[in-house]
């Protein structure tokens, strides 16, 4: 029996996924949670073989949760299951230790097969997303540029970002300028939007 943990902040989606998987004779959903913060504790309690994690959840996002889960329970195989099939997410998911990446609008049988395949030791990646990821390439943002751009998402001023990240105003401006250049944007807001669309944020 393949033991599965589901983490998705949308209760209806989580319930539908659980129903699909529980109908399979060789699968059992052993935990359902709605935030990334709960992933590791729920996994320690339920000992899943496979964890299906959404990318965008309240608190800890699915990619960060995947990395923490890999550290806490190395034997648990992680599949990122998301609405947002963005190329940058794929690279970040694999870097976080995920072995599968599927989009939610895939047919149910594809998800079921993905669970079986990763449980057997294989990797599973949505083919269209893999091709797009190769074409787009990995994120050109440095770790600091990522931090600064992420802090700018809510429209914070340079001074606000500098305080939050313990940097000088000038350093924040330099990182923002570099991020704007690397995304091909004209403004900070456009750089945030383009980075999000590409899955770099």
- Low-pLDDT stretches: none
* Distance, first to last CA: 36 Å
Give the oligomer, counting copies of the same chain as homo and different chains as hetero: single chain
Strand order of the largest sheet: 2-1-3-4-5-6
Average pLDDT value?
A: 88
Class by alpha and beta content: alpha/beta
Helix and strand run: EHEHEHEHEHEHHHHH
What does this structure look like?
The protein has 201 residues and is α/β, with parallel strands linked by helices. It has 10 helices and 6 strands. The protein has helices spanning 11-22, 39-46, 62-72, 87-95, 108-119, 127-136, 143-151, 158-165, 169-183, 188-197; strands spanning 2-7, 27-33, 50-53, 77-82, 100-103, 124-125. Strands 2-1-3-4-5-6 form a 6-stranded parallel β-sheet, with helices on both faces. α7 (143-151) packs across α9 and α8 (158-165) crosses α9 (169-183). The chain is elongated, with a radius of gyration of 18 Å.
């Amino acid at each position: 029996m393949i033991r599965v943990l589901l983490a998705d902040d949308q209760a209806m989606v989580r319930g539908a996924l659980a129903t699909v998987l529980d109908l399979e004779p060789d699968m059992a959903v052993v935990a359902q949670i709605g935030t990334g913060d709960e992933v590791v504790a729920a996994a320690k309690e339920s000992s899943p073989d496979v964890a299906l994690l959404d990318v965008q959840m309240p608190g800890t996002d699915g990619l960060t949760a995947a990395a923490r889960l890999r550290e806490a329970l190395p034997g648990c195989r992680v599949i990122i299951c998301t609405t947002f099939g963005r190329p940058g997410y794929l690279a970040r998911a694999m870097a976080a230790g995920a072995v599968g990446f599927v989009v939610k609008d895939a047919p149910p049988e594809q998800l079921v097969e993905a669970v079986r395949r990763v449980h057997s030791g294989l990797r599973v990646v949505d083919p269209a997303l893999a091709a797009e990821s190769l074409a787009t390439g990995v994120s050109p943002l440095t770790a600091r540029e990522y931090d600064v751009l992420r802090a700018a998402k809510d429209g914070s001023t340079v001074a606000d970002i500098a305080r939050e990240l313990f940097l000088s105003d000038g350093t924040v401006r330099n990182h923002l300028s570099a991020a704007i250049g690397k995304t091909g944007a004209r403004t900070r807001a456009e750089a945030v939007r383009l980075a999000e669309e590409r899955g770099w944020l």
